[in-house]
Amino acid sequence: MPLVNNKVGDDCTDEALADGKALVDSLIKVVACYRHLASCVGGCTDSLQLREELRQTREKAQMLSVAICSHLTSHLRNKRLPEGQRKEMELLWVAFSSSLELLHGDMCKVFNVAEIFSLANTDSLVQTGLQGGGSEVAARALSLPDLNRAQSPTLPAGLESQERSTMEQEIGQIEHMIDDMEMKVNVMRWMVEPHGPQYTDPLSSTDSASLALLSVDEEQPGRQPLCQRSQIFVLLLMFAVVLVAATLSVCVVFFS
Amino acid sequence: SSGEDIIAWLADRFQVDTQEARNFVSMLVALGYIYPLQDHRRLVIKPDASLYRFQTPYFWPTQQWPVEDTDYAIYLAKRNIRKRGILELHEQEHYNRLHKWMNHKWDFVVMQAKEQYRAAKERKKPDRVVFECQERAYWVVHRPPPGTVSAMDYGLDRLTDPNADEVTGLLCCSFKHYTPLTRSLCFLCSRRLVKYCSTYKSHDPFLSNCLPSNPWLTDDATYWSLNMPSVEIPTKMRVERWTFSFAELLSDPRGRDDFRLFLKKEFSGENLAFWEGCEDLKWGEAATMREKAEHIYKTFLARGAPRWINIDGKTMEVTVKGLKHPHRYVLDPAQTHIYMLMKKDSYGRYQKSPVFKDTVKKAICPEEHRYRHRRPSLSPIILRQMEQEQRAKMAANVDITQLCRFTTPVPHLAVYSGLTDFPTANASPPLPFLVHTPACPSPISVALESTSASERRVEAGGGEGDGDPAAARAPVGGHVSGSRVALSLRRLLRRGCTSASVFASLSPKCHSAAGTSVRIQPIIPDQPKNTVNTKFVFLEIKCDINQAVNDT
């Protein structure tokens, strides 16, 4: 009997672990997307749409974090958790708290910048050289295949201040959550050991190569004509060599 | 837009000249508001066609958001994901360091980097590139490559804001990202620190002049003699320190004496005596601890004790129980109680008492020492150097060929001026050696050599050098060298040299000659005649060598 019970218990926590991991992974994804969107605020691609996307991403992040918080707290406060499981939970905990901190930072930044750069005055937006918006990123964050924006681009002015107050509230909530977490669960950060290696492998060679090429182009545009010239020179040389070889062989055949 | 365009536009917009505009723009670039596209590592403005771009407000330094190491780690990991080995050396170092101390977060860092990378891929390629440039520029500003000047060192990150009235206010501002509890604690600590600094500022010998003068600077030890532990009349500064806190009063022996006097007048001296007894127990020897504890108990704590102290019942109970197995800290609760009692009650009354007021009135305030008349003593380093030079010269001038069987080769004359050598001196005859050299086969040649040497020496103030070894020897060497002289003279006579008479006849002349060459020095005490003579062998030979030859 006790064996069966234990087994059930293990399964439960394994599942819980897997759940927790999935949740944390998605939170990390959302936080990463939020950062990309946040970096566009105040720039020339800033628009109501961007703000809307930011808001939606933020809401999703908060939803996820509340879920993770309750999930992890309940499990970590369970004193009968086996040691291995506990370690995994603690890892998730550390990841969760770090993501929350990042999210909090980004939210504060967005809040500040949005205050300075009001959308009512689009001339004052900084020309950062960006072209497109963050719709694709937002789509990724919200795990939607496509974002159909059929809303009208103009919104009443009062909405901005409302937006600001809700944002303030949300920032406060996140702060509160962080504090709460520290109070409720005592995770010793220095005891947590990560799994992964120090350096991660490049994700995919083609992508990285193309990106590298692009960055090289960006970095040294002055050298481009030179490279091209040298390449053309080499090609010509090879062509000439081939031609000479061909004529020689023809001569040999012809005269022998 | 290109560099020169920016400068031109700024000059036009703000109605300033080109140089000013260039300065302003270079500052903008250094701080990260504009970043160069080529040569991104050097944040300078080049007035040519090189291209620049505006930084997005998210990465501006204006709001002084803290630059997190976590973000930096994620950024470096991202770049490494893109292309392995792209990190520069200083970035590699940073990466390894961050990996070490942020180890617990490392899984998160790597995952976040991957997610950010994937999210970036969702964007259009040009936008992706722009974002990467933006991020890169941000990190060049905040984590500059080694050897570059960072604009963040002063200015935005400067911790002392000249506009802030109170240091505490500023500290609060920089702590606004912390939790309220941490903030209030920091506030209290900083308040206390500021108060402590302002109270003790005038008493710190580094920050303000100590009266009469700092002995280390002026060689005048009046300050120390005035502030001795048991001095009769304390200085004003010292008395002022007693008013800062009770601990200060008790830690100063003179203060404690004063306090004891006051308590005697008030007939509550037993408190202080008990406290002192406890201190003695705490810091005393382990052997006498038991007796001390018993003595204290009998004197202060027992019922009907001669100097019974007034402590509450609970403490008394605890103490008595502890005294069954006494140890160093058995009387700690009682001591603390008495200390607090004295602090709250007697200390206040002491400060208002006639005893204290009298002390304050009598306290002296020494005048500041005008140390223009500082005694110029030669630094011991210089003295030693001169000594060494002297020895080297004398060692160099000793002619090896002049060795005879009565002499022993002395490689250098270090033993010459060493005090330690004198007890064993009979065995090794450094002095006789010197005395012998002129007595050995060809006094003339030696004399000639020594003449030149001694001439050189005298010119170089060599008398002083001689004086030094003499000084070193003087306390001991007085009579010893006298006997040496006798010894050497006897040997000389045995050998048939009449240099003894030479010495005798020469000595007055040479002494005068030597006398003139010796520079007066406050350190070297007066030399008895014979030591001077025996040392100045070379000089003696220098004078009237003809006479010596004639005599032989």
- How is the main sheet of chain B built? 2 strands, antiparallel
* Proportion of beta-strand residues of chain B: under 5%
Number of helices of chain A: 7
- Report the helical percentage of chain A: over 70%
Summarize the structure.
The complex is a heterodimer of chains A (256) and B (552). Chain A has 256 residues and is mainly alpha-helical. Chain A has helices at 2-38, 48-76, 83-116, 135-142, 158-184, 205-219, 224-255.
Helix and strand arrangement:
The complex is a heterodimer of chains A (256) and B (552).
Chain A lengths: L1 H37 L9 H29 L6 H34 L18 H8 L15 H27 L20 H15 L4 H32 L1
Helix pairs in contact in A: 1-2, 1-3, 1-4, 2-3, 2-4, 2-5, 3-5
Chain B lengths: L2 H12 L3 H14 L2 E3 L15 E3 L14 H14 L6 H13 L4 H17 L2 H18 L24 H8 L5 H21 L14 H4 L3 H5 L9 H7 L3 H6 L1 H14 L2 H15 L5 H13 L11 H10 L9 H21 L1 H9 L17 H18 L32 H10 L3 H17 L2 H34 L3 H19 L11 H7 L1 H6 L2 H7 L1
Antiparallel strand pairs in B: 1-2
Describe the protein in words.
- Chain B: Keywords: Membrane, Sensory transduction, Signal transduction inhibitor, Vision.
- Chain B: Residues 245-360 form the RGS domain.
- Chain B: GO terms for molecular function: GTPase activator activity.
- Chain B: It comes from Cyclopterus lumpus (Lumpsucker).
- Chain B: It is a peripheral membrane protein.
- The complex is a heterodimer of chains A (256) and B (552).
- Chain A has helices spanning 2-38, 48-76, 83-116, 135-142, 158-184, 205-219, 224-255.
- With 256 residues, chain A is mostly helical.
- In chain A, helix 3 (83-116) runs antiparallel to helix 5.
- Chain A starts with a helix and ends with a helix.
- The model of chain A is unreliable at 1-9, 149-156 and 202-224 (pLDDT under 50).
- With 552 residues, chain B is mainly alpha-helical.
- Helices cover 61% and strands 1% of the residues of chain B.
- Chain B has a two-stranded antiparallel ribbon.
- Chain B is elongated, with a radius of gyration of 41 Å.
- Chain B starts with a helix and ends with a helix.
- Mean pLDDT of chain B is 71; it is low at 164-170, 402-407, 409-482 and 496-545.
